[in-house]
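#struct-pred
JK: can someone run the complex with zinc ion? inputs below
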Amino acid sequence: MSAKIVCVGRNYVEHVKELNNEMPSEPVYFMKPFSSVSDEIVLPGYSPMHYEGEICFLIGDTLKVGFGFDFTLREIQSKLKKKGLPWERAKAFKGAVVFSDFVDFENIERLGLEVYKNGKLVQKGDVSLMIYKPEFLFEDIEIIFGLNAGDVVMTGTPNGVGLVEKGDVFEGRILENGKILVSKKWKVK
Ligand code: ZN
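RT: done, structure tokens with the ligand placed:
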């Protein structure tokens, strides 16, 4: 039971701008416990929840890729940020992550993601748009936190984040060279 989920914040320029955040001079990391992983998208009920679709990597003998939502309680996060307090209440709550299956891929440089909300494309991004590329992140995370089999790295979200509402249907896709490698659909409970 040593696995962890390391998340990267502010890794796409357009998303940094949409939240009026400062451009990072080094990667912004935070973690989610595995207790925050859910099979279904469930609203917490006490604060609005935003979706952030992300390209995720599962560390192991072979590196695998999957789609993940880094769910965020944005109002709570904004308050915590202003006060300089930790983000767990906004990022590590029950149901704060869902993942697709993790699958093999060939070329890490050619991976991308798409998020559909009720059939409409709301987020689109790929590795070429990342400020810090996956290979750099793996080395950096290994130095700081250690990176072991079973760990997951969530590489940040492109622009287009927004509200999750009851009854919404979300689909997350991971693409390689524009072709779908893995996808998953959820209906919000
Ligand atoms: Zn995120």
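RT: quick notes.
The two ends are 29 Å apart (CA to CA).
The helical segments are 13-18, 74-83, 88-91, 134-144.
JK: thanks, will look after standup
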